[in-house]
Amino acid sequence: MNMIKTILASAFVTVASFSSSASLINVGGVIWDPNYIDDLSGTAGLIHQDADASRSISGYGVVTFLNGLNEASYCPGCELEFEFGGYTISTVDGGPNPIASPIGGVNDQWFEYTGGWVKFYVDNTPEHITSVSALNSTNTGSGGGANLLWLELEGAVFEGTETTFHGGAIGAIAAGAGDFDVVGGAAMGNFDTNSILLDSGDYADMSFGSVFGLLKSNGDGTFSSTGTATFVGETIPEPTSLAVFGLALLAFGANARKKLL
Fold first, then answer.
1. DSSP 8-state symbol, 191
2. Is residue 256 very low, low, confident or very high in pLDDT (cuts 50, 70, 90)?
3. pLDDT tens readout for residues 46-67
4. How far apart are CA 166 and CA 176, in angstroms?
5. pLDDT mean over 116-139
6. Domain limits of the chain?
7. Which of 55, 116, 185, 201 is 20 to 30 A from 163 via CA?
8. What is the C-alpha R_g of the chain?
9. Which residues of 204-222 are buried (b: 16+ CB within 10 A; e: fewer)?
10. pTM for the whole structure
């Protein structure tokens, strides 16, 4: 029995040590340090956002920094692009009617949204976009020569029964915040952590905040704006390797137990 306890204790210590000493991770050409002080911290400094007449939103953009590294360092020879959509105005949890109250913000209840998704893509033929005016749907996301679906996220309900995003005006800007569940992509195993406890009692994998200029009319019933966003979460270093290594140690322990019986 003491031998079994020793083996299991060794497995735990070894896996923990392996995790704490993990080196840089590379998934599809995107490189980051799992021991970065904020674990996972990203900035999307270039985003274009569209809204229809009911203020449901979609858009696209480029990740400019990841764990303190610029694009040339975290994605050498590539570009990490994304597209988003599916955020629909909701009044179920108390949000205002977007037609009767078209702005929202501190003088009115913030808009509440349901649904939402984001898909990150690695583009190995990057345009190295440096200006938000150069963004369009054909050079970002799935339309940007994407080579790999890197990470797929869905809006996580953090309030009431369906609210996944809050957004509203503060002076001359529009700010928003929400949470994500990781549901797919090549890097899913590194970010599917359920590490963020929500007010709803559920868990999410990432949180984000955004700042945009106020929506401006395009003259056809739709609206557009540009802005930035940040996202944070936790990283699982080399999840497959750790799992296989841990299972091997546990199997070894089980084998030793049989021999002792």
1. H
2. very low
3. 999 999 988 899 999 999 999 9
4. 5
5. 90
6. 1-22+239-261, 26-237
7. 185
8. 22
9. bbbbbebebeebeeeeeee
10. 0.81
